[in-house]
Design goal:
By secondary structure, the protein is mostly beta strands. The protein contains five helices and 16 strands.
């Protein structure tokens, strides 16, 4: 089953836009305890095709109206429904080799301020990672059975914040995307999250967590940058909450020259899903973790 993304405008019975087998997507969010998402919940679709292929027309800028509706992303591994989301922008680049289109969806803060979000995340895939040279030393557990991490990065300091970043396969039983949505709807503005890793268990609470960042990337967007740990540390609170929003550049002059020289279009053949959770802890909290 090919991944399909469909957007239905509110009040209309037919799809405003449909993308079959997009090059990738990213769901990206920032959750602040006792504040919530406050609109910092973004979805990006990337389409990439041979220059000779026509992409479906997509109109977003006429009429001055907010394009609000229901976005559904589905295949044999997932069925995601994000209702009351806004189609906010489209960015295109066309070279002599290929066409690229980036579609950005965002949530209005008035929607995400509600504890019961109009979002359904149904994961059907369980592509767990086999043991590597690390054995099971880097298995993690949120709810059910432990599963192996792709990897971990962390930064600890006695003088300021501590940051832990986990890369996972995002299976249904241990999904940070699920956890972020549950935490948002918790009592007192946050539901605590416990993560079990051998000899490195930790808990994220309203008393120690500054912000939780979660990304789910698919296809080509796995290679799109995640905000660096340094960027998290140096950002003001207002800047930090907006870091999940992607900074998308148009094709450069050099890209156009290379595409002229290498005119054959090569689509991506292997599609995988990766979740990245970044936990920004306050000074003095969870600084005793040892991941090496």
């Amino acid at each position: 089953m090919v991944l399909t993304a469909t957007f239905e405008r509110a009040g209309e019975s037919t799809a405003w836009f449909q993308s079959y087998n997009p090059a990738g997507y990213r769901i990206s969010l920032a959750l602040t305890p006792q504040v919530g998402f406050s609109g910092h919940f973004y979805v990006y679709l990337m389409e990439r095709a041979d220059a000779g292929r026509a992409l479906q027309p997509l109109e977003v800028a006429s009429g001055g109206e907010r394009l609000r509706g229901k976005l559904r992303i589905t295949d044999e591994e997932r069925d995601y429904v994000l209702d009351n989301i806004d189609l906010t922008s489209v960015q295109v680049s066309v070279s002599r080799q290929q066409k690229q289109r980036w579609i950005e969806f965002t949530y209005d803060p008035a929607v995400t301020d509600d504890k019961k979000l109009p979002i359904t995340i149904a994961k059907k895939g369980e592509r767990r990672l086999e043991n590597s040279h690390l054995g099971s030393a880097y298995a993690y557990q949120l709810d059910d059975d432990p599963e192996n991490l792709y990897g971990v990065s962390a930064r600890f300091s006695g003088a300021d914040a501590n940051i832990v970043r986990l890369h996972t396969a995002g299976c249904a039983s241990n999904s940070w995307l699920h956890k972020a949505l549950q935490a948002h709807g918790g009592d007192l503005g946050f539901q605590n999250i416990t993560c079990q890793i051998p000899d490195n268990d930790f808990e994220a609470t309203t008393g120690n967590l500054i912000r939780l960042y979660v990304e789910e990337s698919y296809g080509e967007l796995i290679d799109f940058p995640t905000p660096s740990i340094e960027a998290l540390l140096n950002a003001t609170p207002a800047q930090a909450a907006t870091l999940p929003r992607l900074r998308i550049d148009a094709l450069s002059a050099g890209d156009h020259v290379r595409h002229q020289q290498q005119s054959h279009f090569h689509p991506v053949c292997a599609y995988q899903t990766l979740e990245t959770a970044t936990l920004h802890f306050d000074q003095g909290h969870n600084g005793n973790l040892q991941f090496v």
